[in-house]
Amino acid sequence: MAPSVYDKVIAVISKPQEQRTDFECHDLVPWIRKQNKLFSNLKHEILKDLIKNCHFQRSRANDVIIKQGDIGDAMYATLKGSVSIYILPEMEENVCQYLDRICSKPKPERNLFGQHIFSQQEGFVFGDVALIRDCTRTASVLADEECDLLVLNRLLYNRTVREVLNLEWQEKTQFVLRNPIFKEWSPKHRKQLVISLRKESYQFGAVIARQGQPVQNIYFILKGEVEVSMDLSLHKSQQPELWTEIESNFAELISTNRPNGKTTHHDRQRRSRVHKISLLSSNEHIGSLEIVQDISKHLDTTTVAGEVELLVLDRKHYERLLVKKHPQSVESLKKELTIRQLLVLSRLYHPTETTVMKYVTMKLLNGDMSSKLTHQYHRQRRRHPMINRYNESEISRKVRTRLHMNSKNTATIIPGENSKKMFLNQLEYELQLLMIHLRKNGNIH
To answer: Which is nearest to 412 in space by CA: 423, 424, 396?
Structure first.
């Protein structure tokens, strides 16, 4: 049986460099270009140089490829197999000495290398940060299985891919510095975020996120535009967990306007229409609503409207860097998303179409409202233990007025049922204010 292209690649890069012919390296350029996005835009001669002068390394399962704290002298690209990244927190003991001691054991447990950050398969590039920043290794990398690695030493790295990776690092750094969501972060945590972001490019017509598919990442738009569309009629079947929540907690959101519960032909035609929601451009984000609200599937479809460049943050990094270390950034993200959701609802506003979108928006509003209302309630109870809805407190009256509520149906003590009414009224009130503002500015008629 004839050897595969992969076998030919391994046969060539396993040879001593002086035995690799120009003809062999020339033939492998198309395969290497497709193998990794980093290599896709490099010139033919640069890739030929890379193939002729790289090193080949085969690592066994559980081999330590990179140790945190070591001096970086090479970059790696995974040709086959999977690797995992681990980061140790700050410790009193020197990291290098600690890891040398761990690695001296016959079979060290993986949790001793620190927190598992993520795992990646073929096509993954790692070890570049220490070369870009001229710093020590920021993480440990272990082989999950037998891995074939293409290795670039510092000299080869400098003359082939340094310029591309350095430009990407600068773009990511500038994005993090300019984005208000991350403005309060320490330099150390900003650097961790820059390392965690990866850059991706898409051409016109490519689908970045498809409605109903699992949510894995938040995409931040660096350049270009994307179009967001949504088929509202699919939300009930695609989001069963959300729908169950709505039926249990906020059945008031489910429309009962149809006679006898029947759907007319006109209704079916209207509801099956795909709605074009918006165009998103630089500094906007995709998939953030679902990840912030812990929704497992995309609520809409995002399609590239022209060539677009994105920075991708996967869910694990979001939980590690934002949820655990910077909850205030999650709140900033929620505020941005609340405004966007209200704008979306202003375009979709129809009781039979927007049940899920209304509920998601209410969940965004809920965190803010529930904490404020609970705080006001407990403060008022300490002052006036016998408050009831017939002897309404001034604080409660102000809250009710702000939420556009009727005092007859509102208790100053806020049990679950009355909280639901408050959140429903708050959503309607916010939408009314937004519609008035949009009409005033001539954005809708």
So the answer is: 396
